[in-house]
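Ticket 4471: requesting a sanity check on a complex prediction with adenosine-5'-triphosphate. Repro inputs:
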Amino acid sequence: MPENLLPTGHRRIEQMRMQGIVKKFPGVLAVDHVDFDVKAGEIHALLGENGAGKSTLMKILYGLYHPEEGHIYLNDQSVVIRSPNHAIQHGIGMIHQHFMLVPSLTVAENVALGLKSSRGLILDLEVVSKRIRELSEIYGLQVNPNSPIWQLAVGEQQRVEILRALYRGAALLILDEPTAVLTPQEVDDLFRILNQMTADGHALIFISHKLHEVLAISHRITVLRDGKRVYSIPAESATKEMLAQMMVGRPVVLRYDLPPIEPGPALLRLEGVCATSDRGDEGLKNVSLNVHAGEIVGVAGVSGNGQRELAQVIAGMRSITAGKIWLNNDDVTSHSPAAMNQHGLSHIPEARMTDGVIKNFTVAENFVLQNHGRKPYAWGGLFMNFRSITRQCKTAIKDYEIKTPSHETPIKSLSGGNIQKLVLARELSRQPRVLIAAQPTRGVDIGASEYIHHRLLEERTKGTAILLISEDLDEILALSDRIVVMYEGAIVGAVKRDAADVRTLGLMMAGSKVTV
Amino acid sequence: MITDILKASVAASAIRLATPYIFASLGETFGQRSGVLNLGVDGIMLLGAFAAYYAVFETGNLLLGVLAALIVGMLLGLAMAFISVTLQAEQGISGIGLYLFGLGLSELLFQKTVVTPTPIDGFPRVNLPILTDLPVLGEIFFHHNLLVYVAFALVPISAFVLNRTTFGLQIRAVGQNPEAADAMGISVARVRYMTVTLGGGFAGLAGASLSIALLNIFQSNLTSGQGFIAVALVYFGAWRPYWVMGGALLFSTVNALQLQVKTIENALGINVPSEFAVMAPYVVTIITLIFASKRVEQPTALTKPFERGES
Ligand SMILES: Nc1ncnc2c1ncn2[C@@H]1O[C@H](COP(=O)(O)OP(=O)(O)OP(=O)(O)O)[C@@H](O)[C@H]1O
Ligand SMILES: [Mg+2]
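Returned structure tokens:
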């Protein structure tokens, strides 16, 4: 039987056990003698702060990294997993924190990638497409095998990743923060699929920073801290508060009180702004919006409804086709990002890896990216003052608890959440009048999220006008004075904090007009 | 009548002159699609041309000449793969190095062996039954040497390999997102070694098509920059074999016309420097690139060495 016609789950993994795993990177002991196991029909969640070593441990299981010490057992047999290819052969699949799809290829081509074809050297995309449709049917994963990946929304791309793992007959599937970029509805869909998979005898490993998700989906929970396993418990006996405390090592506040503030003048104003999206259609339709000093305006919405474009036009990163933008009463329509910065704007971009940092630069260099020519980082706008840069950067690392071996480490070797903290530290250090925070806590652990939230609230008290764009409704509800909802590039509703509840917001996010 | 014959002969020589471009740029297409830019094509062509010429010069065996060019080309391709994939050297610079190496070594070997450019008996034109005797069309399409047909046959074959085979899919994936290919169990290094070696082989054949089929001679810097034109053609043709062939034909037509222009120039006593001919493809390519929007086939990982995050 040709490889790609095999039924899923044909290589059942009754049990996978990792024992005494150690992995070192220059300056970091990323994984420190960790034991971890998962059984067929079970979802084992892996929790931990940013940089705790979750991804590293999973990359070892998937053959991407090789451990310095430790053993892996599949069904009680010791195995050495040398490469992803090897892992796949053993029935292990992985959905990475950053998706591993080739954007220019179609769904079917991405699935066929690396598989043997039933027609020898020649591609058999029809066979692959047919099998994709069958699997879509079985698991209710809707995707068109002929669409190129770049045209798909993130949620759809993730379905492709899952399909691809199922197609390969992955008996054990690792999901590294699969929900970080999904909408609540998409998360529900995903959980339905995951439950179906465990019912079929798959073993699943699930990583997330969202405690309610972990509690809802998993059977067992393991917490890592600083590369060490600190705790493993059955999910029934866990609570949010205790998990938070175990991860961070101290109690964590999960709710905030907003002290009432009399909002000042409107510092950010948009009037009738229109812009084109990357796909070439209308990304922003006639958007008008005011953000006052000392106010947090939350922008809610399902991803891909114009939030990204909104942040980009305000930051000067996307040109607008109509409308006007004012910062501080200055008309800044069609200004460059640098000019926007000068007008007191700070921007925490959504795509922090591409728009927020330069990967090969060090932590310190990234920290002074926009201000390197100004006091206190430079003399006379020409010569960099490295002493001052180092001092300020070290303070930021301490204040924001950024986990890095030193300020001279290249930023690309920091974990995702720590990169986000650095971007935040940089943007807030510039004492902005207007702050745009796009998905500020996406992929960030709860300890750090709490810290970021406190910093945003502090900025609010200082009188900064804050536009908070987030797909996390809990975050929006916790922090915003006012909430606007975006749908298909337009603002479809605005709600005051006290009048907002998850249900009405959810309705508006789905496109129905509601006025409160 | 006279103009008809002139047109036919321009068309026929355009097809012949396209041969080295097609070989070289198809080979380069494979490498670039997998993410490796080989700027050393011209150097490989020169050594391939010399190898083919020398083999035929010594033995008179044309197939041996082709084989020599192919092997020499593949070995140089392998060297480029080693430098760019294993050593992860900067691709642009190593390609220029390879070019200079080929230029110098082919010259040196020629001086040590043959010394004076001596014509050889290269591939003869093939007479096809009926087809060759067709009026006009016969002269344009069916009266060429074997390597011309081989080059044109490689176009659909290359397109098929890239678009319809598992290997082609691997090439495209490795050039677009090597991390993803790696995570799917594909060896990025293996794929790149194969494409760059294959590309070298094609460049060797391009050289052979000059020295033992088109010109039937070897001299210093025989290619006069055609390998660089081939690299430009890959961009011009947006990494698609058929479009690359179109580009090759476009420029070979310009070359063919130039041959005619010489006659006119001589009559009028003016002179267009040949450098313009070498420049032309680049100018045209740059202009095309300015106006072409981002093209889907563009290998996003082009010139970027791949390394897993692990240290
Ligand atoms: N390729 C690498 N080179 C050097 N250091 C690395 C590399 N990958 C990870 N690290 C370091 O190892 C530690 C663990 O990182 P890892 O990515 O496993 O964290 P994580 O738990 O997945 O965090 P997050 O929740 O932010 O994704 C971090 O300190 C990180 O900086
Ligand atoms: Mg991670």
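Notes from triage: The mean pLDDT of chain B is 89. Leaving this open until the requester confirms.
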